[in-house]
Amino acid sequence: MISSAITFFTGGICWFFNKTNHKVQLKRESFIIVTTVWVVMSIFGALPYLLSGAINNFTDAFFEAISGFTTTGASVINDIEALPHGILFWRSITHLIGGMGIIVLAVAILPYFGFGGMQLYNAEAAGVVNDKLHPKITRTAKSLWGIYVLLVALETIFLILGGMPLFDALCHSFSTVASGGFSTKNDSIAGYSPYIQYVIIVFMLFAGTNFSLFYFLGRGNWKKFISNSELKVYLYITFITTVFIAITLISLDHFPAEESFRASLFQVSSIITSTGFVTADYTSWHPYITFIFFILMFSGACVGSTSGGIKLFRHMILFKSIQIEFKRMTHPQAIIPLKIGNKSISVEVIYKVLAFLMLYATICAIGIFSLTLTGMNVESASGAVATSMGGIGPGLGTVGPIHNFFAVPAIGKWILSALMLLGRLELFSVLILFSTNFWRHH
């Protein structure tokens, strides 16, 4: 209650002094607002942890809060089951808010208070392709939230039918649909029945799907759903990787067939969608399986989903670009358009994607190097950076699935917090604030 009062009081003051200046039209203002909102929300989101005594220092409390709002799911709390229900619910609420983005929520709600603006939506949902469902941004945001709430409600019902208590079902549904990963249990989903694990698998895969496809599906447009190229690649990678890992577990580790398939499908779905739930210590499996999971951390699911990471659409453009360059070596005069499905991708989008991928790799390298300076080994630093940038949660080494981020040095937690924000806001939305050209008066 105290943290809520502080937050609403501060927000009320800001609204009062800005109530006559409520039209956001400039892109520059939009980028400033988006980044500021995420940081400020994380600062206030840390208050419940501090005031309740669940966490006793601001660094850890801020880390837990920004991990929730960015739907990363990385935690510094050792005994989650010892937390009061109020704090457990707050952790899940941060996922619920962050899952579709604070700004998408804002464009659905703030117009009633006189706020609005297309630039805010573009800054938050800065995907490769903007597939607006309605000409008005507010209607688009409401449609997305409707789909979001429906998925949460359906998963909650199915989890309750499997014997999960209502409170736990709500918390896990918030985390699943947001691709977050915060659980109410110390061992995440490992202690639950196979039925519950399969339910969570299905909804993790839903969360990794472009939400606009659900909208078209609901309107009877099956063709747009089943013909989506990115969705096909997403499901294909999930299936092939699952089968490969399951066969390995059966043949080399002698796991039972059904358990191997379920464990493999769960972990593949969890990582590719950046959810971060676990049912097993996958780092104890065969070393090359761990490497596969590390590669998946840089994958991401579909554009327009709640998942983090690079997103498969960008990878598809990269591989198509490489394919075209090979063709041009044998046919230098040929004009070969880059197509994804039936859509031609403009040169501008291709350049943006390649720039994004290069910047992503550069930031990861800098992040890994910075963490090693704090004393972390390369494996743990690599896993921590990959999972923070991709919004996944568990990493490798000392931040693996049976550990958490409690032992990471304080400076390392601030570095990882920054990486979570960068990854969630698609890099450029944050980094543009550090450009001198951005601040010049036009």
TrEMBL record:
Membrane topology: Multi-pass membrane protein
Gene Ontology cellular-component terms listed: plasma membrane
Transmembrane segments: 31-51, 93-113, 145-167, 195-217, 233-252, 288-313, 349-373, 414-434
Domain of life: Bacteria
Subcellular location: Cell inner membrane
Binding site for K(+): 71-72, 180, 275
UniProt GO molecular function: metal ion binding; potassium:chloride symporter activity
Keywords: Cell inner membrane, Cell membrane, Ion transport, Membrane, Metal-binding, Potassium, Potassium transport, Transmembrane, Transmembrane helix, Transport
Name of the protein in question: Trk system potassium uptake protein TrkG
Organism: Saccharicrinis fermentans DSM 9555 = JCM 21142
Family as reported in the entry's similarity comment: Belongs to the TrkH potassium transport family.
